[in-house]
Specification:
Helix content: 40-55%
Strand content: 5-15%
Oligomer: single chain
CATH class: Mainly Alpha
Shape: elongated
Radius of gyration: 18 Å
Number of strands: 2
Distance between the termini: 26 Å
CATH topology: Four Helix Bundle (Hemerythrin (Met), subunit A)
Strand order of the largest sheet: 1-2
């Protein structure tokens, strides 16, 4: 994400897709919040026996937590937090037995560590795609006749 977003101006990071959609800045704040409070915290709960239900994750905490900050600030913090979290995750020496351990998600019920870690990866990929889509959307009219061939500009349905 740093390579993708470093040095772009605030207009690109502050625009969204309209309505209640998120800007690049909002997504970065959300990723920072997740690094602080979600994935690794839930991993620790599972590895400790998983009897406690995970704390609900506030998917909108970034709106308050990111006030007065820049996209660069958020990118830098995300990089630091992710590096530390991956270091801690690696130090846990998770094996196949640990991957099968279960925790309790407040909405889904029982989940395995394997599912949690896979969701962490896919969550990142989902938001990378969202960032690319939000940025592309800003050029929707500018691309003229190519619009038809640029799939990122056409919302997919399930």
């Amino acid at each position: 994400m740093r390579e993708m977003l470093a040095g772009i101006d605030a207009e690109w990071t502050s625009n969204n897709e309209g309505g209640d959609t998120w800007s690049v800045f909002d997504v970065l704040g959300h990723l920072v919040h997740g690094e602080r409070t979600d994935w690794l915290a839930r991993t620790r709960i599972i590895l400790a026996g998983g009897e406690d239900t995970f704390e609900p994750f506030d998917r909108f905490a970034q709106f308050e937590a990111s006030k007065g900050r820049t996209a660069k600030d958020l990118l830098d913090e995300f990089a630091e937090l992710r590096k530390a979290n991956l270091g801690e995750l690696q130090a846990m020496n998770i094996d196949d037995a640990a991957l099968k351990m279960r925790g309790v998600h407040p909405a889904f019920g029982g989940v395995t560590l394997s599912e949690l870690l896979a969701a962490w990866v896919v969550h990142d990929l989902d938001h990378i795609a969202q960032i690319a889509r939000v940025m592309a959307k800003q050029y929707e009219e500018a691309v003229g006749p190519w619009h038809e061939y640029l799939g990122i500009l056409h919302p997919r349905t399930k």
